[in-house]
């Protein structure tokens, strides 16, 4: 069942979203060659808790850390580690979840570490643009499937692989709720969007194949061909006349 959020629930999710944005900004300033993903995780945990939130991912279904740090060919769910040190030319996807009084916010961005290849730069630019193209379809009366259709239509000409195994999702009291928000597929299928729905739109796009595999740790998802992957995600609230991106800085 897709839940319609009350004004109180939306307010708590907005609070969680603003804490998330501040954590994201703090981490962005730290991204440089020589820093470990463990250091990023520890700082995110400190920032989130200092602002009155709780990291949503910590202990979620056994996940051991507060954020996900996915480097290069890691698509999603990379586990922070003191052994993973960022180096010049890497790309890193940082996925953050924040819980405020039982309500969640979730967002991911992929960043360059120093100077990156033109190939990697284009992958990041196109994946981020695809996110916003998907968000344009997030409006009342529109089918959920039109989001994925718009994303796929935009990305296809570039020959990139669109991950199908993992998708966007509804969010609220649970980190993952209905509906599933695909990044591909036909138009005008499935449920229609209504004001008060909250969804995460998150294209995961690979330089090569769309195929992925989960490593032995049970979490880390990598591209099967070990080529780069980018991931951008925003939490959006469906409004009466469109949508509001919740995981962006509010004045």
Protein model, in words:
This protein is an alpha+beta fold. Helix content is 26%, strand content 25%. The chain is built from 4 helices and 15 strands. β11 and β12 form a beta hairpin. The longest helix has 22 residues, at 7-28. The two termini are 33 Å apart.
Task: Note the topology.
Layout: H1 7-28, H2 37-50, E1 54-55, E2 67-71, E3 74-76, E4 91-100, E5 103-112, H3 118-135, H4 145-155, E6 161-162, E7 168-170, E8 177-181, E9 198-201, E10 204-206, E11 212-214, E12 221-223, E13 229-231, E14 234-238, E15 243-245
Antiparallel strand pairs: 1-4, 2-4, 3-12, 4-5, 6-10, 7-8, 7-9, 9-14, 10-13, 11-12, 14-15
Helix pairs in contact: 1-2, 3-4
From the structure above, extract its key features.
single chain, 251 residues, alpha+beta, Creatine Amidinohydrolase, five-stranded antiparallel sheet, 4 helices, 15 strands
Number of helices: 4
Topology-level CATH name: Creatine Amidinohydrolase
What is the CATH H-level superfamily? Creatinase/methionine aminopeptidase superfamily
Largest sheet: 5 strands, antiparallel
Q: Report the β-strand fraction as a percent range.
A: 25-35%
- Based on the structure given, which CATH architecture is correct? Alpha-Beta Complex
What's the short story on this structure?
With 251 residues, this protein is of the alpha+beta class. 26% of the residues lie in helices and 25% in strands.
